[in-house]
Amino acid sequence: MLKAIDIMTPDPVTLSPETDIRTAVALLIEKKINGAPVVDKGGKLVGVLCQSDLVAQQKQVTMPSLFSMLDGFIALSSREDFEREIKKIAASTVEQAMTAHPKAVNPQTPIDEIATVMVNEKMYTLPVVDGGRLVGVVGKEDILRTLLEHK
């Protein structure tokens, strides 16, 4: 069975948390990639920025639903979710828009586990980490490519 090391892109394009959104968008478009790992100055993986994180900046704010009971209001969604959404919409840096503490796989992770994480987590740019070091990235196109090559 194929593993992450067999299909990953080694030495992927990375972003820093301080990168401004405009620069990040231009890089993703120029490189024709869905997303990029975000690493700090020490090279540690701190997040992933995907096109979907950036598209979220253009969405309408979802106002929390309220339930009225005994002359009071009870929120049906969490305040933290609402605040996170507002921060993402107003983001000016990669750090503010990225998905922090992303799921990652290791080089020996089988392709079926990678696909499961992508589908279940709705995360289509997965960092490949070995010994705490970013060694590659697996994107949804890498998975799709295996359908052509191995069927």
The helix fraction, in percent, is: 25-40%
Q: Which CATH architecture?
A: Roll
Question: CATH fold name, please?
Answer: CBS-domain
Gyration radius from CA atoms, angstroms: 18 Å
> Which percent range describes the beta-strand content?
15-25%
Task: Please report the number of helical segments.
Answer: 7
What does the overall shape look like? Answer: globular
Mean pLDDT level:
84
Strands, count: 8
Query: Structurally, how many domains make up the residues?
Result: 1
What do these coordinates show?
The structure is a single chain. The chain is an alpha+beta fold and 151 residues long. The protein has a single domain, classed as CBS-domain (Roll), CATH 3.10.580.10. The protein contains 7 helices and 8 strands, in the order αβαββαββααβαββα. A 3-stranded antiparallel β-sheet has the order 1-8-7. The longest helix is centred in the first third of the chain and has 11 residues, at 21-31. It starts with a helix and ends with a helix. The mean pLDDT is 84.
